[in-house]
Amino acid sequence: MTIRDGIEHAPGSEFFAARLAEIGDAGLVPSPCVNICKIDPYTSVCHGCRRTLDEIAAWSSLGDADKRWVWQQLPGREPPV
Question: For 64, how many CA atoms within 13 A lie in the half-sphere containing its CB?
């Protein structure tokens, strides 16, 4: 029996780069959550959205400029191993 946790379906860097281009500079900034919520215990980075635990916790209180900054970081982050 194989236990799957969904991380094998986590999006690659190109997904985050394309979404960042779609978001642009105007309007509300959506969450990068992709519903694959598994935090790496060593790096505190989510396997699905690649945000840090601190970024996830602060997301709802961040302004749009800070949310865009987080989005800009995601394409360059390697997924946790």
Answer: 9
* Sign of the torsion angle spanned by Cα atoms 54, 44, 21, 7: negative
Neighbours of 70 (CB within 10 A): 20
The residue among 72, 81, 80, 77 whose CA lies nearest residue 19 is: 72
Would you place residue 3 in the very low, low, confident or very high pLDDT band (cuts 50, 70, 90)? very low
Kindly report the number of other CB atoms within 10 A of residue 80's CB atom. 17
d(Cα 76, Cα 52) in Å, to the nearest integer? 13
> What is the per-residue pLDDT across 35-61, written as a single tens digit (0 to 9) for each?
999 999 999 999 999 999 999 999 999
Q: Give the three-state DSSP class for 15.
A: helix
Tokens 């094998």 correspond to 8
Please check whether residue 44 is in contact with residue 54, taking contact to mean a CB–CB distance below 8 angstroms.
yes
